[in-house]
Amino acid sequence: MSDLRLTVLGSATPYPSADNPCSGYLVTSGDTRIWMDAGTGTLGPLQRHTRLDELDAIWISHLHADHSADLLTAYYGLLYADLKLRAPIPLFGPPGIADRLAGFLTNGPTRSPIEAAFAVTELSDGHSTVVGSVRLTARAVEHGLPAFAVRVESGSSLVYSGDTAPCAALTELADGCDVLLCEADGADPAHHTPEQAGVSAAGAGRLIVTHVGPGITPAEAVARAGTRYEGPVEYAEAGATYTM
């Protein structure tokens, strides 16, 4: 029996609502803890479940602020607050992520010590790594800038789309997975509609729609995805936890 768990820290886009931060998730398996996307407002609810310095890794799908902005305040927490960081936290993200963070965080002639907080690994198509009891496999997807989906495996399997248009890489990655966590932002060429999320989930055992744009309600997104997908469909409500 797998103990792979997904906790939704937030799922709003493109900015947080009063009760829902932007995209961010905590993936756990046994003692392994991975913060998957660090969108605006997700650092707060993350701490209901784990301290920053207890994370085994952080995984970032792409560098839009609604998926990565809370890395900035996490940096201050790790280096300049009450935490005692034993070693930099492994940070997996798109090419250029360290320089992007430094660009925001450097306030003088000396570059901020990003690498003292984060041990950065740049993702590439097909990148695979093991973090604790979890294997992470990335595929490059189509979002108009470097962006990655990820397959998380620890007995059972979870695939997270990040932000992407429907593409073969995501369909292949999700084939045979237990759960597909798929964005459903709306009719934009760089995103999925709910119906397209249903199509992308064809090979998955369950679909959870997330990153639902403000133009439709979560209930509408679930219903629309269900017109193209025969399995169970749920909405990634902030605070919800799913066991694979």
Mind telling me which CATH architecture this is?
4-Layer Sandwich
Q: How much strand content do the residues show?
A: 25-35%
Shape verdict: globular
Output the strand order for the largest sheet.
6-5-4-3-2-1-14
Record field, number of beta strands: 14
Low-confidence segments, given as residue ranges, are: none
Given the helix and strand composition, which structural class is it?
alpha/beta
Determine and state the CATH class.
Alpha Beta
How much helicity do the residues have? 10-25%
Topology-level CATH name: Metallo-beta-lactamase, Chain A
- The CATH homologous superfamily name equals Ribonuclease Z/Hydroxyacylglutathione hydrolase-like
Count of DSSP H/I helices: 8
Report the sheet with the most strands, covering strand number, pairing sense and barrel closure. 7 strands, mixed
Give the distance, in angstroms, between the N- and C-terminal Cα atoms: 9 Å
* Total tally of structural domains: 1
Order of H and E elements: EEEHEHHEHHEEEEEHEHEHEE
> What is the radius of gyration?
17 Å
State mean pLDDT (0 to 100 scale): 96
